[in-house]
Amino acid sequence: MENTIHLFIVIPLVGFITSLLIPYKGEALISKVAFTAVGLNLMVCMAFIPIWAIQRFPALNIKDLSIYQTANYDFFIDFYFDEVSAIYLLVGAILTFLVTIYSRYYLHRESGYKRFFSTILFFYLGFNITILSGNFETLFIGWEILGISSFLLIAFYRNRHLPVKNAVKVFTIYRIGDVGILLAIWMSHHLWHENITFQQLTNYELVQKVLSSHYSLGIFISLMILIAAAAKSAQLPFSAWLPRAMEGPTPSSAIFYGSLSVHIGAFLLMRTFPFWEHQFLIRVLIGGLGLSTTVITSLIARVQPTIKSQIAYASAAQIGIIFFEIAIGLEKLALFHFAGNAFFRTYQLLISPSVVTYLIREQFYNFVPDTRKIKNNTYQKLRNTIYLLSLKEWHLDSVIFRFFFKPLKKTRKVLGFLNLKNLLYFFVPLYLGGFYFSYINQPASPEIRYYLAVGIAFLALLMVVKAFNERTSSRLAWLLIALAHFFIDLSITFNDQFNAEETFVYLSGVFFSGILGYGCLHKIKAFEHHGIGLNQFHGLVHRYRLIAFLFLLSSLGLAGFPITSTFFGEDIILTHIHEDQMVLAFIVALTFIITGISVIRIYARIFLGPHIQFFQEKPELTA
């Protein structure tokens, strides 16, 4: 019975790989592959869950395989199935099946038909990995797949400016939330001294024994989980990304931001509930955050000018209530609420084009102007203030910009010394010298090693910040990101003897991804006969499809996406940062996050967006 769980991963994976091999023009075959894969998954799910229920709902845990193992570390894939997984799996299978049928006709003759169905299957694979994950590492693999598939679907209309811009913005918020997951994984390794599974978290005595002597560490892990869940489920202060994500096709908006992906934050809280249920402060924070989000997003939803934005904020409001239900311990009610909200929002989004037509007709034929007089009293002033704040979406975008993007952008002039010349003649020799001392003649004092580690990691952070702010040279930004990985490796080597085997696991993925990506940029420059700056979108994917695909793969590799050894190396690095080295852990995690944002930004600026040839054609000169 336990082996049946593998089918929920294998079927979407086979469907995704098959869809990649089908020619672009084979619409019927592409839709049949997607329909068959999702339908087969639904059939297995509807057969498996009743059998599982007859056996009285046993919690199933499968330690599948160890991908990388050392004396002090074991990265293994683990799957876990219980009531929470069952509800999410069933709802996900039904809705994905329905949306797949709907999309077969909705996207007929669309130029990105194959791309859409391949991404949907990729998303469904990531969703199943996430909800069936048995530990943080497995969950993070699915978590990252959801993030990149979200980016690709929002930017589906990739020759338009606004969808691409909003796709980058949403991906950025996702990456900010990833800081929480990375730091939670880091601290949980030190709290448990092992790769803890979610099944072990259900052991009350084990959890309380550890938290009784490490209460502050438990609070820290729970806070990081809350940050990750809030970012993924569009809770305050991250709610503003949800309507921006509606730039993609209506079916993807329905399945992603109305039903499944947006509820993953609630799933994370339910999955980790046994860990933080006795931390009163965390429960108050989760409940308060959920209620605050419900109130504010409900007010915003009432004044939105578009039907999709109204549905987006209404969904965020309902998820806020789900957060509150989880916080007070009503897990079964939260699951029921999730299922109802997911089905209802999917229905609303799928019929939203028709609703827009009805509303326009109603306003055109039956509009009646408001004849009420404006009252100038305290109540009316307060009402108008809330109305204006809601129109401005309570400045939620400004909060993220002020506390995250503005500090990064302020460093643009300060980091001017990180140019190509200094990179080659100063920082590369500096790395080689540091490499020599770290492996051959390392200082004996632990304090000196720690300060060196923090300094080198901070230098890596400056490199990726410079890459994020780079506007003129895409190749310089790419080299800075690749070199930053090498400096992170050097930093951890000084801190805790990062050995040669672990260095190879980490940097092999960086090296191959860096070489491939730089080669793609070099080819683009040779074909275009000029450097490709990052101050605008160039939309070159229409000219260089293969190069764009290869560069996307190299970007994912450099960002630590779970397709290369870079992903496993980043997880290993976190195990070499001690629990009392909070500053170093934060710098390293922030470097990884900004790295992901920077490489996706480079990809979007070069290959996505409007191309000048298509939208600003020059008139022909006649004699």
Account of the protein in words:
The protein has helices spanning 7-21, 27-54, 83-106, 113-131, 136-154, 161-192, 198-201, 204-213, 215-232, 241-244, 250-259, 264-271, 273-276, 280-301, 307-327, 331-350, 352-366, 378-391, 396-410, 420-439, 446-469, 474-496, 500-528, 545-558, 565-575, 582-607, 612-615; strands at 60-69, 74-81. By secondary structure, the protein is an all-alpha fold. It has 2 domains: 2-359, no CATH class; 411-615, no CATH class. A two-stranded antiparallel sheet has the order 1-2. A hairpin with a 4-residue loop joins β1 and β2. α8 (204-213) crosses α9 (215-232). The longest helix has 32 residues, at 161-192.
Number of DSSP helices?
Answer: 27
Could you state the order of secondary-structure elements as H and E?
HHEEHHHHHHHHHHHHHHHHHHHHHHHHH
Counted up, domains total 2
The residue-averaged pLDDT reads 86
The side-by-side strand order for the widest beta sheet comes to 1-2
Distance between the termini: 79 Å
Give a short account of the largest sheet: 2 strands, antiparallel
SS class: mainly alpha
User: Per DSSP, what share of the residues sits in E-state strands of 2 or more residues?
Assistant: under 5%
Please state the CA-atom Rg, rounded to the nearest Å: 25 Å
Total strand count, please?
2
Unreliable sequence segments: 615-623
The shape is globular
Identify the quaternary structure here.
single chain
The helical percent reads: over 70%
